[in-house]
Predict the 3D structure of the following.
Amino acid sequence: MQVGIDMGKLAGGDPAKLDIEELLATRLLVQGNSGSGKSHLLRRLLEQSAPWVQQVVIDPEGDFVTLSDKFGHVVVDGERTEAELAGIANRIRKNRVSCVLTLEGLDLEEQMRAAAAFLNGMFDADREFWYPVLVVVDEAQMFAPSVGGDVSEDARKMSLGAMTNLMCRGRKRGLAGVIATQRLAKLAKNVAAEASNFLMGRTFLDIDMARAADLLGMDRRQAEMFRDLKRGNFVALGPALSRRPLPIAIGHVETGARSSSPKLMPLPDAPQDVEDLIFTPDPEEFTRPLAPRRANPAPRPTTDILAELSRSTPAASPAPQEARVPQPEMSPEEREERLAAVLNEILDDPQSAYRTDSVLYQDFLVRARMRRLPGPPLALGDFRRRVAVARSGVDVETAAGEKWQLVLSLSNNVADDLQGVFLMMAKAAIGGEPCPSDARIARAYGTHSARRARRLLGYFEEQGLIVVHADFSGKRIVAFPDLQSETAPGSADALDEGETKAAAE
């Protein structure tokens, strides 16, 4: 069904139509400096398309919550745990309900984690619920930054991964990304590059004007026009809008934001005794209690937060002794066996290779609590180590050997996110197995990029951990000098058996 919604007026006065069905397949990027009318444009798009398609809005400032009054959007407060947000997002898809995720009041890192958990929850919905959804992300440069900032690397990777999934892989799952940013230079290029429709508004920096002109296929000399655009005016291009760049004036909206642009107001007449009015204290000021000044707390490590969430009851308010469920007595061997079983359940999912360690760790803690495993929860660092060893596919006999102990010792010099790849390659070398293909290495790293897999091998070789060479037929061999072992020849272009089996099932 083809539906064209009215976004405003073209230069000649004709209505500017946007094809919603085409937009769902090709995605949209909106760019403009603060005050150019981006939020107004998004509101017009949401209002006009509300009767036709389910909508989800990632709202960092709480400006779009007013959509609930007229169009019935459910407002989801971002001040929840990541597990709660993922569950809500999954139910949003199942029940096809439009919603606004408001992140107002959270600091930047909390906003990034909340948005990532919500987007991942929508992305991981079962195939039977892959209905079309318009996913609007305002201030997208916050959630997909081009460079690292003041937030932790884990939060940045989690948020950037969720935005990349939305724009790169979301179409097959029915997720159509509409992202708005103040500056193209601050937005990750692999996220911006997936959009096929563009609405470019007023901007002043040369680098942003040049990128906007490149995306619209315009001459660099024409980029100056973006400085002259009025508020609410954009240049449109894309299969859902126009086959050539056209100026559009965005139409009026029915709802309003809670925040608005500053307006000039006349100052009141100054009283004659203005100095006495200012410097004479009110008697009530001495009786009014002063609000305590809160110091900004230091950021808490992710491991501490996740460990706290794993407790069955808060430490500050223990449950009455008679109401507690007694923990079952369990030998260390039995506990270790159950921990391994829980870990295997998680890793058996083919999609687990593409989820962040934090998401997998949350799932692990929940499953461990459900099985009432006694003792302190497994730390995130230990969990990552176990995941890396499990993904390497090492058997019991090999794991008990001296060479594998040397491998584990060498892996201590490898970054946490690279240990899975290193251990998998070392296991193949110890067993004389064929060298893993680029696809298999990429999956072990949590990506689909064969080019990144080859870069990882180059990195290991630069660190002196491996030596990569080829046999006479051109097949790849990876040698480990410290182990005095090397893999058998293997084709770098071979398909990944794990993904092939998953696709067949």
Q: What stands out?
A: The first helix runs from residue 20 to 26. The first strand starts at residue 4 and ends at 10. The chain is about 40% helix and 15% strand.
